[in-house]
Amino acid sequence: MIRIFNHYVSRMGIVLLLMELLILHAAAALTTLLWTGAAHQPLQLTFSAFAFALVNVFCMSTLGMYLQQEREDMRATLARIAPAFVLGFALLSALMHVLPAIHFGRAGGMAFVLGGAGVVLTRLLLFKSPSAGMMTERLIVVGDGALALECLELAASPGRPCRFDVVGCVPVPGEASCVPAAKRLPPGESLLSLARRHGATELVVSVGDRRSGAYPVRELLDCALGGVRVTDAAHFFEREASQIRLDSLQPSYLIFGGGFDQSFLRAAVKRTFDLAASAAICLVTLPVMLAAALCIVLEDGGPVIFRQERVGKDGRRFQVLKFRSMGPDAERDGQPRWATAQDPRVTRVGYWLRKLRIDELPQMINVFRGEMSFVGPRPERAYFVEQLGRAIAYYDVRHSIKPGITGLAQVRYQYGASVDDAVRKLQYDLYYVKNNSLFLDLLILIDTVRVVLSGKGAR
């Protein structure tokens, strides 16, 4: 894994991204040069080819072609390339009307054909060749309790940014074993010699009680000095799952673990990004919003905009704005309720507004007012905040920054409708609060487009 602006990305993802950018750039430049003979305009040729590569990589990202679980399925790759390039063609056509410097002549179609072939060949070489195994990391888990079992499940789960081959777990005296016997390593050998014998490059320490004499402090130090990376389980989850796990979280990890950038520069960059992204989306979706408002009025004649009190930064309350997707008397008894799957309160128009996330668009006004950011934790109702704050440790940490229209929890987890869901989403929110950056905001924005196009997570 490679850390970029506090966010971890996989080495394989970086390699794939750079290779496909180069291949798509070369395909556009070569076909344009051969078909139009534009050698006398090198700057325009380079700029057009770069735009072609960047737009198509963005479109492939929004259709999930850089998701880990799709990387070895070539049928899925072939099925997504066509719609990704169709979307790329539409965006490039729009850009050519705005930026006349982008020009392909008659070579555009051939550039898509050559670029698509290059993408397929690149993925075949990376994911099907014997060298793909070089990206696999071998690790050993120190401990065999409940947390060790969760580390094993995370390492083995599909869709991880990094491939792992878990050698096994080293039992620690005094810890209740939860790991299958087949995954427990026999005692008697030092951690360093065990790691070297199995070719492990990392030790993940999942021991809960570190004050007992059984905690192998000296052996872990020998491993660190011997070139074997030693990682705490909390850091392992943060790195590999973009979560800060509550079940293994110590206050010292939040205090001394870095991150939590609240500097003036970060605030200025984030505010600029909020305004630019919101203004651009308002312009693009204005016809959609007008159509949505008309459909709401035609269905039941009720109000178009729904206002509801939510909790924002530092616990301040504000009125969030959304297109109304439920009937006017959705909470006639005055009792707040979680939204559920197939919620009967949702209108026919509201179902599609929620499915396509169109109901969230009026929140751009909240962003312009400064009450929300474009990216951040989801703003929750005060009634639920009081409940969740009493039930979940560190819940109020999410209120240290502005809430967002979209966020890491929204694109990584399903719609929250219970306390358990709130716990799982809080783990993503804590990660975002700790590691937020413009880079992470851009990645979440791309993931948001993917989620909207797929219709996942809506209720």
Automatic annotation (TrEMBL):
Keyword list (alphabetical) reads:
Membrane, Transferase, Transmembrane, Transmembrane helix
InterPro entries in UniProt: Bact_transf, EPS_sugar_tfrase, Sugar_tfrase_EpsB_2
The record's NCBIfam families line, in alphabetical order, gives: EPS_sugtrans, EpsB_2
This chain belongs to which protein, by name? Sugar transferase
Q: Which family does it belong to?
A: Belongs to the bacterial sugar transferase family.
GO CC terms, sorted: membrane
Q: How does it sit in the membrane?
A: Multi-pass membrane protein
Keyword check for Transmembrane: yes
User: Pfam family of this protein, just one?
Assistant: Bac_transf
Q: Where in the cell is it found?
A: Membrane
Give the transmembrane region(s): 12-35, 47-67, 79-102, 108-126, 275-299
Molecular functions (GO terms)? phosphotransferase activity, for other substituted phosphate groups
Organism annotation: Pseudoduganella armeniaca
Which positions fall inside the Bacterial sugar transferase domain? 270-453
